[in-house]
C-alpha cells in the first residue's frame, strides 16, 4: 500500500511537505470513514460526535518526488483546542506570528526527525530542526498552550499527537506514528489520525 511505501522510506528526510484544508465537498465524502480507524481508541471508552470533525490533508514530497497525500481527521469532538491549532496551521488562515514575518502555516516545512519504524516529527516553521515551536494561540508569552486532555491513545499507525518539552508546552510541533506508541500516552496529546484507505 501507499502507506507501507511511506514507512519504507523512514530513513529519508521528507522535504517540501504541504498542508491544506480539504474542500467542503470532500469533507462529506470522508465523514463516514471513521469506522476504519482502530488507531483512535480512547481512554475508558469515551466517545465523541465525530460527524462534524474537520478533515485536512498533508501532501508529502521526498526531494523532488511527490510521495502522496495523507487525509487526516482532526478530533475536534474530544480535543477542540488542539484540533483547531493544527487546522489553522494547515490552512494558513491565521496570518503571521507576532514577529511579523513567520507565517502560521505548515506548508513547505519538512519532517526533520525520523525514528525508523516508530514515528516522525515535524512542525518547526522557523529552524526546521525541532528547536522552534509556537501555536496559533497568543495567550501566553511563549505562544504555547496547555495539554487539553489525554483521552485519545497512541494505538497504531497514522496517529498524530503533539510534540512538547514537558507538561503544557504545545505549539506547532507534531508526531506521526508508524506503530502503537503506548509510552506516549498521558504525555503527548493525540489530536487526529489518518482517516482513509488511500492514505494507508
Keywords:
single chain; 200 residues; alpha+beta; 8-stranded antiparallel β-barrel; 13% helix; globular; disordered N terminus
Contiguous runs where pLDDT drops below 50 for at least 5 residues: 1-39
> What portion of residues belong to β-strands?
25-35%
Helix amount, in percent?
10-25%
Structural class: alpha+beta
**Termini separation:** 7 Å
Strand order of the largest sheet: 1-2-3-8-6-7-5-4
Largest sheet: 8 strands, antiparallel, barrel
What integer value in Å does the Rg equal? Answer: 15 Å
Q: What is the typical, i.e. mean, pLDDT?
A: 80
- SS field, number of helical segments: 3
SSE string? HEHEEHEEEEE
| Outline | globular
Count the E strands: 8
Q: How would you describe this structure to a colleague?
A:
The protein is of the alpha+beta class. The chain contains three helices and eight strands, in the order αβαββαβββββ. Strand 2 and strand 3 (65-74) form a beta hairpin.
Amino acid at each position: 500500500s501507499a502507506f507501507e511505501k511511506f514507512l519504507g522510506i523512514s530513513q529519508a528526510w521528507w522535504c517540501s511537505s504541504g498542508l491544506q484544508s480539504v474542500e467542503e465537498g470532500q469533507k462529506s465524502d470522508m465523514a463516514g470513514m471513521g469506522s476504519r480507524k482502530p488507531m483512535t481508541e480512547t481512554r475508558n471508552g469515551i466517545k465523541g460526535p465525530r460527524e462534524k470533525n474537520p478533515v485536512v490533508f498533508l501532501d508529502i514530497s521526498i526531494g523532488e518526488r511527490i510521495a502522496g497525500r495523507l487525509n487526516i481527521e482532526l478530533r475536534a469532538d474530544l480535543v477542540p483546542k488542539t484540533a483547531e491549532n493544527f487546522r489553522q496551521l494547515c490552512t494558513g488562515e491565521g496570518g503571521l506570528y507576532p514577529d511579523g514575518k513567520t507565517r502560521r502555516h505548515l506548508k513547505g516545512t519538512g519532517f526533520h526527525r525520523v525514528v525508523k519504524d516508530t514515528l516522525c516529527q515535524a512542525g518547526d516553521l522557523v529552524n526546521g530542526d525541532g528547536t522552534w515551536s509556537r501555536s496559533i494561540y497568543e495567550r501566553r508569552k511563549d505562544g504555547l498552550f496547555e495539554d487539553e486532555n489525554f483521552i485519545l491513545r497512541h494505538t497504531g499507525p497514522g496517529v498524530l499527537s503533539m510534540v512538547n518539552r514537558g507538561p503544557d508546552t504545545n505549539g506547532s510541533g507534531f508526531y506521526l506514528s508508524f506503530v502503537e506508541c503506548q509510552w506516549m500516552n498521558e504525555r503527548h496529546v493525540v489530536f487526529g489520525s489518518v482517516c482513509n484507505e488511500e492514505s494507508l
